[in-house]
Amino acid sequence: MTGDHQTLALLLFSVFVAITVAITTWVSRNRRGSAEEFYAGGRLFSPMENGFAIAGDYMSAASFLGICGLIALFGYDGLLYSVGFLVAWLVVLFLVAELVRNCGRFTLADVVAARMRERPVRIAVGTSSATVSVLYLVAQMVGAGTLVALLLGGESEAAQAWTVIGVGALMVVYVAWGGMRATTWIQIVKSVLLLGGTVALTVLVLTRFHGDFDRLLLTAAEHSGHGDAFLAPGLKYGGDWTARFDFISLGLALVLGTAGLPHILSRFYTVPTARAARRSVVWAIGLIGGFYLMTIVLGFGAAAIVGPETVRGSNAAGNTAVALLALDLGGGADSTGGTVLFAVVAAIAFATILAVVAGITLSASASVAHDLYASLRRRHTAPHGEAAVARGEVAAARGEVTVARGEAALVRGEVAVARGEAALVRGEAAVARVAAVGIGVVAIALGLLARDLNVAFLVGLAFAVAASANLPALLYSLFWRDFTTRGAVWAVYGGLIPAVVLVVLSPVVSGGPASLFPGVDFQYFPLQNPGLVSIPLGFVAGWLGTVTSAEVPDGAKYAETEVRSLTGAGAV
Amino acid sequence: MYSSDGRSRDARSARYDDPWYDAIASGWGESDGTEVPDAAAPSAADVYLEVQRSAAFQEVRRRYRRFVVPAVALFLSWYVAYVVTATTAPGLMARPVAGAVNVAMLAGLGQFLTTFLLTWAYARHARLRRDRAALELRWDTQELTRVTRGGAS
After folding, report:
1. I need a labelling partner for A339 at 20 to 30 A (CA). Which of A42, A157, A181, A259 fits?
2. Where are the transmembrane segments (chain B) (predicted)?
3. How many secondary structure helices (H) and strands (E) does chain B include?
């Protein structure tokens, strides 16, 4: 690629960074402190804003560049892949969004732990949520590094490394300074940019074919060299039965995993009510569905206009298909239009990665600070805030005794309790900021270590872990009266451990030329995605743990969960 | 703690048209014959158990489940059928329908269409059949737990 492309793309990207940093500074002025603010952004976003933010969190660069590339190279199979990403939202809408909004405060663990003995459940759910986030995060970081190499021609190792470090540093700035409020606005800006860019390119492709979708498909099939097979499934996920089961496994993980992704669930707490959470999901489904419909046009457009051979020549995985398409639609490599469109696509892809990474970091820091740190610490020492709560309770008790000034003292006592709780929660937000920095450092380190690896499977794995560990625990605790603490813990570990172990034993890690460790062979599991096995295992483990536990299920606790989840009583 | 999201007509009309105490009179307290709060100062757990047993809540839950259970069964089996057919019977999916459009393309676009339709249907069902009753129950329950908290401390 020429210098013009690079300069313009870097310029546009700098503008995006400047705008987002300005947003971060602007929204975080005078708003330091409370966990309510840090994790949930004040809970007053409108459904439309949150819908755009959800779509922004969900439409990663992998979807934008990856799915278009898949369609450009393999035709229909790319579309097959994108359907799972959309249908998954029905699970979120029907079973999760409203109920989670009603029952929880900040994280998934809030919902599950409310009915159970808090500490073990919080640690289990916190661990699996953090695992999902880190897997997803590393995939995005490495993607960012690769993207630089692809789009800007920065083939050098140093350019990739500095991109990973730069993206990591920016995301830490966004999250630690701005919390959920800044992250949400960044997602909204990114969503608008991404959708705007996609709409513009789609219109250009359709104009090129005079609005004739049929002719677009025929031209794509003709240029692909596969003929009609290009428009039918089987080019990528066909072949032997292992490949087919692998795709079914991936499809299952995609559909069930979305409802267990911590950074998606935490978005529902940024709106005031369950009704608003529902309406934000409706917005998100519209935006995401529209986006995937447009990627179909862009993918087939790239095949028809650029041609799969050129795409494959630029990048074997097809990740540059949209950029090449933009170059062509703008008028070719040497034209101004081509340069501008190419730069726009590159900048949008960066913005996308940056925003997604910030969203995931925020939810990972919530899992660490709100679930893991709080539970692990509580056992040993009573932190300042808890002492204050205790003091407040003593005062409240004292107020009860004093008959004459009872009322006043009672009120004072309650104020003290509230103040103590605020202190507790303020301390937690500080911990969450530190956690965000820590997670940023870990993600940068892993991103640098893994930058030469093919990490597409990490996203599939993140979805598989979310579907096998988080979803069973969440659904059981919302809908099953007899679910117990042991069941919840077993459901999480019974999904998390098989998913991770199966991946370690899979061809992704060893035993093949494309594996992480091509030299050794400890491959015992044939599929790349563990979902087909680990998702049922998670559900079975939760059931088994429940029926074997001696704990008598607490009907009153379940009544509370059920009433709260369906009515919103007592929701924050 | 509740703050309405301003733009929803239902929320406001629900509050003005049907004052929350209507539901108490009609919904519950009749099912098990015990007098509400007063004498024995029930705990918050009792309140939730009682709300759970109330006819009004059971109606909300029944409406929710009646929509969600068949809908989930429907779209999950439709999606799994789609994925399994696409991977195991590509020949069937490749059968042309009109021009370049084949069965696979129709099925794929059909997935998008059913997703949009089910989203619309769910949102409509929740808005018309569930929201108002759920909101009433919310105020009732919060009122009762507030009373118990005040009485107990």
Report:
1. A157
2. 67-85, 97-123
3. 7, 2
Selected residues 195-224 of chain A with any CB under 8 Å from a CB in chain B: 214-215, 217-218, 221
- pLDDT band at B122; cut points 50, 70, 90: very high
pLDDT at A47: 95
Residue A422 and residue A453 in contact, taking contact as beta carbons nearer than 8 Å: no
Asked if residue A458 is part of any domain, the answer here is yes
| Strand partners for B18 | none
Which residue of chain A is at minimal alpha-carbon distance from B138?
A: A569
Q: Give the chain A residue nearest B93 (alpha carbons).
A: A232
CB contact under 8 A, A95 and B142: no
The chain B residue lying nearest A93, using CA atoms, is B119
Residue A155, min C-alpha distance to chain B (Å):
37
**Cα torsion for A163, A166, A172, A178, to the nearest 10°?**
-110
Indicate which CATH number applies to the domain containing A561: 1.20.1730.10
Q: Do A90 and B75 touch (CB under 8 A)?
A: yes
Mean predicted confidence (pLDDT) in B79-107? 89
Q: Cβ of A231 and B8 within 8 Å? A: no
Using an 8 Å Cβ cutoff, are B52 and B19 in contact? Answer: no
* The model's pTM: 0.85
Residue A330 lies in a domain: yes
Below-70 pLDDT ranges, chain A: 1-4, 30-33, 150-156, 378-426, 451-456
